[in-house]
Amino acid sequence: MIDLASxxxxxxxxxxxxxxxxxxxxxxxxxxxxxxGLEIETIRVFRNLTCRDGFTFSLQAGPSHYSEPKAIAEKxxxxxxxxxxxxxxxxxxxxxxxHDPTESVYGWVPNxxxxxxxxxxxxIDERVFILEKLLK
Length: 136
Description:
The protein is of the alpha+beta class. The chain contains four helices and six strands; from the N terminus they run ααββββββαα. The chain has one domain. The strands form two sheets. The protein has a four-stranded antiparallel sheet with strand order 3-4-5-6. The protein has a two-stranded antiparallel ribbon with strand order 1-2. The longest helix is centred in the last third of the chain and has 10 residues, at 111-120.
């Protein structure tokens, strides 16, 4: 919990404008690593991210995805986003050509853009997040 009484005005203003890193938190919580022998072969998240307003999409990163780094990492700077439940104008620059926006993959979408979209849609729906985590 942020103690607003002890914050300076600059710190308070920064906390209001800063966008939480929803994407990396979600990916770290739900990613599944698949091993082939001693090496990790793939990484995948098998559930969509759900925002508070009901907006959903697939969020992927790792060696076989359109992400940065293109490796298994603790933090990603760009994501492979896919199959949003509605058209999201902020992602159209990264849309796979020739596909309907809700049936498309969006490669190398910057982390700050993904997090801005999540924030725009009210943040991650904690109820769904917690329920999915408990069922994992």
